[in-house]
Amino acid sequence: MKIYEAKDYQEMSRKAANILSAQVILKPDCVLGLATGSTPIGTYDQLVEWYKKGDLDFSEVKTVNLDEYRGLTRDNDQSYYYFMHDHLFDRVNIKPENTNVPDGTEEDSDKECARYEKLIESMGGVDIQLLGLGHNGHIGFNEPAASFAQTTHCVDLTESTIEANKRFFASADDVPRQAYTMGIGTIMKAKKILLIVNGEAKADIVAKAFFGPVTPEVPASVLQLHNDVVIVGDSAALSKIPR
Ligand code: GLP
User: Fold this and answer.
1) Which of 138, 167, 177 gets mutated to test ligand 1 (max ligand atoms within 8 A of its CB)?
2) Which of 98, 112, 127, 138 is catalytic?
3) Phi/psi of residue 192, each to 5°?
4) pLDDT tens per residue across span 176-185
5) If one looks up domain 9-189 in CATH, what number appears?
6) pLDDT exceeding 90 applies to what percent of the chain?
C-alpha cells in the first residue's frame, strides 16, 4: 500500500487525476471503476480539463461504477447515473454505451446484481478502481460487517450513511434506504485500487482502516490485503496516521 500526501483537496484531486490519466494513456481501452460522493468531484473536473486541452482521449475507455441507490431513476439528480453524466460522462468523449452504473430501477435485485457482476467479468475486470471512503469505513456501499467475499448485492444503508448523505437530499426521509453495490469481493478483484480521501472528519477512519486490524467492521481495512493500492489523501485526512 502506497500513501501519497497532498497539501489540500485540489492537490489530492490533481494527483488522483494524474494516476487515472496514466492508466488511460497506457491502455486506451482500459476499464475504469468509478466512484461518486463529494470526494471525486475535483478529480473528474481535472480529467475534464485535460480532456479539453487535448491531453486525454476517452473514446475507447469503458467504465463501471461502484454503486447506485435502489429506486432512483436515471433522471433523478441524486442518482449516481445522473452524477456521473453531470460530472464526467457528458463532458468528455466517452461513448455512453461504454459506461455502466447499476440500474437502480430494476426491482429484481438478484437479477440486477447477477447482471452487473457478469458484466464486469465480461469486460475483463477493472484495471483501476477509484474509491472514496465513508465516515464509517465503507467503500462503495459496503457497510460495516459486510462479508469480504460478497459480490454485487443489495444493501440496507446504515443510519450513519443516511445521515452523511442527507446533505444531498431535501431531507433524511428522501434518502433511499437501499442501494446496489459492488461487493468487497468485486472491489478486491480490481487490478489496481486508488482511494482518495480528504478532510479532518475522515482522519480517524483513515488511521483505523489502514493502520488498524483488518476486520469487516471497517470495510476499507480489507484493502491492506490487496497487492496494488494507492491512497491519496490531503494532510488533514492523513493527520492521524502513525509516522
Ligand atoms: C457514499 C458513496 C461512497 C463514497 C462515500 C463517501 O455513500 N456510496 O462511494 O465514497 O459515500 O462520500 P464523500 O466522498 O461525499 O465523503
Assistant:
1) 138
2) 138
3) -140, 145
4) 999 999 999 9
5) 3.40.50.1360
6) 96
